[in-house]
Amino acid sequence: MIDKTILVDLDGTLADYLGALVRDLDRLRSPGEEVYPPFWSEDNPDWHNERINLVRRVPGWWEALEPLASGFQVLEEAIRIGFNAHILTKNPYKLFHAANQKLAWCDRYVKPVLGVDEVEVSISPHKARVYGRVLFDDDIGFMAGWLEHRKNGLGIMTVQDHNRSYTHPQVVKWDGTNLGEVVDRLQLAYDC
Ligand SMILES: [Mg+2]
Fold first, then answer.
1. Does position 19 have pLDDT exceeding 60, yes or no?
2. Residue span of the structural domain in which 23 resides
3. DSSP code per residue over 110-161
4. 169 alpha carbon to ligand 1 midpoint, in Å?
5. 92 and 41 inside one domain
6. What pTM was computed for the model?
7. What is the pLDDT of residue 2?
8. How many Å lie between the centroid of ligand 1 and the Cα of residue 120?
9. From ligand 1's centre to the CA of 140, what distance in Å?
10. 93 and 43 share a domain?
């Protein structure tokens, strides 16, 4: 049912990207070295950005990301309600091998939950272009861009440090304790 689709992000929503990156950056840090954020940024020193990419180039790194139970809880509820789930993820710039691994990750972890032969996956840096009734994504930029064109769309966002202060009337923040609220909003989005 193409008109009742939940778009689901991978990194930070279903897959513990940040946990793995922080862990591996910690392993590479010298004693007493300054801690920079685990995000590629022009404000970081070049060497730190290179270190992030070094970690992300490790063979098998993307495929080895741990599933986030909080994300799968919401995904399972959405499936139960009747939504069609469509994975929507951005590939890191020029790290082309990550796309392969993201597909393999979905095959391993998402396919059994959906009970389908093949998981629908879109890989795009422009999530706002992709149609769905719900977007489940932790990223403020993606969420704001997607909602700009969907006055009736629903956003679900797993609360993390980088999105804690973000609010939007169409977004329900999922903090791991308010599953009832998230399910109610999902049901409303499905029924409308
Ligand atoms: Mg994300």
1. yes
2. 17-56
3. IHHHHT-SS--EEE-S-GGGS--SEEE-S-HHHHHHHHHT-TT-EEEEE--G
4. 20
5. no
6. 0.95
7. 52
8. 17
9. 9
10. no
